[in-house]
Amino acid sequence: MPEYTRRRRCTVPSQLPANPTPESAAPQMQSKTPTAKHRFEGHQRTIRSFIFLHDNIHVVSGSWDGTMRKWDCDTGCLVGEPWKREGGRILALALSPDGKTIACGRVDGSVQRWDTDGKMIESIWRGGSGVWSLSWSPSGGHIASGSHDGTILIRKAKSGKVEVGPIETNQGGVYSLAFSPLGDRIASGGDGTICIWDSNTGEPLVGPIKNLYHHVESVVWSLDGSKLYTASDRFARVFDSISGKLLHRLEHDNWLYSVALSPKHNVLACVGMGGIAQLWNTESHKPLGKPFRQEGRKPLHCVSFCQDGQYLAYGGGDNKITLWTVQDIAPQLTVRAPMSKIQDITQEETQPEPPLSSFLDVSSTPTPHSPP
């Protein structure tokens, strides 16, 4: 396949205004309303997942229109042509820890692998039910997939051979999935429940944690693996990953679909219904700045930070990816500080720092609502 070249076929204003929100949503900490850097337009249907590449310049998005597209964060334009193959709607994307391979889950139950220039790696892994969630192990040796039928498969990343599973979760659909930073555990979110499994044996370790009142559409591990952040109903919740104890609830004025942790600050991003988008301080559990809602108030299904923490993006029901500069949303984050140590565990309990890609929420996937 020939190399793609950048095509400046779009005209994108450098700053795009965000809609105002009620004062009660969050303290007004900015001197002015935050504005988006770019909106990537071109998909014909809802965007369910996207990833930042490791160069911090490019984004790859997947949509229910069945295509993947690569975008330039500097220009705001599409790079090359849309990536098209069989399989129908794209429900999940996940980037390998080395940043070279993209796993793609589709509604027909298939898992495809692509390089970052849009060439599909031969051999498609087949399954029996739509793949709603994907996660790479921190070593890059395995890919886990969660399906609409409630099962998890853990495969060898190169051959596709199933090594663990199918794990019968009894969670309805597996709408979110994430390996722990060390790769020894895997968390799954389903119909109002969370479970944590031994990734080597498929045996349950924690849960099911119940009564979350809605599909758990996003799960993200803390840096040291001691906590699990989730999105469901109107709350982002923080759980102890060993005991399953609920530690904190962060309330919003609408239902949430996705959460993501910043790699450079103690910040959690939350997005959901009505275009709601809010940053939170993970130490104080207080909101950072104003909500930065999506214009038109379409639902937002996925959110992520780039590796260097400079950008945040979200996508959803308006068929677009919106890119923000994080300091425009929260100007107080002027110094890039490392993630702080968790206060309620001892140094002996703190696990070694994993590869960055293992704790970013790069493959959040929502429930199977019909897109607008």
From TrEMBL:
Keywords: Repeat, WD repeat. The keyword Repeat applies. SMART domains: WD40. InterPro entries: WD40/YVTN_repeat-like_dom_sf, WD40_repeat_dom_sf, WD40_rpt. Residues 12-34, 360-372 have a biased composition (Polar residues). SUPFAM superfamilies: WD40 repeat-like. Residues 1-10 have a biased composition (Basic residues). Pfam families: WD40 (PF00400). It comes from the Eukaryota. CDD domains: WD40 (cd00200). WD repeats lie at residues 40-72, 83-115, 167-207. Residues 1-40, 346-372 are annotated as: Disordered. This is WD40 repeat-like protein. It comes from Rhizopogon vinicolor AM-OR11-026. The lineage of its organism: Eukaryota, Fungi, Dikarya, Basidiomycota, Agaricomycotina.
